[in-house]
Amino acid sequence: MDDDDECETPSVKGLEKILFGGKRSGNHVDEVWPNLLLGDMSVANDRFSLWKLGVTHVLNAAHGKMHCQGSHEFYGSTVEYYGVPADDSPSFNLSVYFQPCADYIKEVLSSPGGRVLVHCAVGVSRSASLVLAFLMIHQRLSLLDAVKAVKLHRWIFPNRGFLRQLRALDLTLRCEEHNTRGDHHSSALEGQCHDLL
């Protein structure tokens, strides 16, 4: 097995199998990366809990949806708010938010004392996908490694459409790295990269 087989992106079915394993009971919120919390709307709607958790920023992946109260007015001046109006639907294009949200999370984590809660309704699909994208874009983890890193702390299950979009991101990032390194020993990756162009 060479290096390229080692970092092959699993199929959507393969990812679902990995995601399905492990404990399935979840907390309202879990710290899945240093100062990066992934949670549901009940913790996001509880300003006292956020204060106790030391949250300075909230990224709401269900902005404007029912039961998600998040807004600049709701949090006031104590917490910075960023809203993404995503639907938890396989046909929804979440990938347009991958880069801006990853940049936002990175900016928060780079600032002294910054702690960010990323949430949606349940904290397993929309928000989890944005956290995975951040880990892939700014922490340079493969999709598989990002999934494993988050699953150590929280059960997640992005819908099939989001998994497809994350696989496409994984391939794009691997191709960029491949081209930057000028590494032309894998014809399989070369072909996949060519198909993307």
From TrEMBL:
Name of the protein in its database record: Dual specificity protein phosphatase
Pfam families: DSPc
UniProt catalytic activity: O-phospho-L-seryl-[protein] + H2O = L-seryl-[protein] + phosphate; O-phospho-L-threonyl-[protein] + H2O = L-threonyl-[protein] + phosphate; O-phospho-L-tyrosyl-[protein] + H2O = L-tyrosyl-[protein] + phosphate
Stretches assigned to the Tyrosine specific protein phosphatases domain: 102-154
A biological process from GO: negative regulation of MAPK cascade
Active-site residue list: 120
Enzyme Commission (EC) number: 3.1.3.16, 3.1.3.48
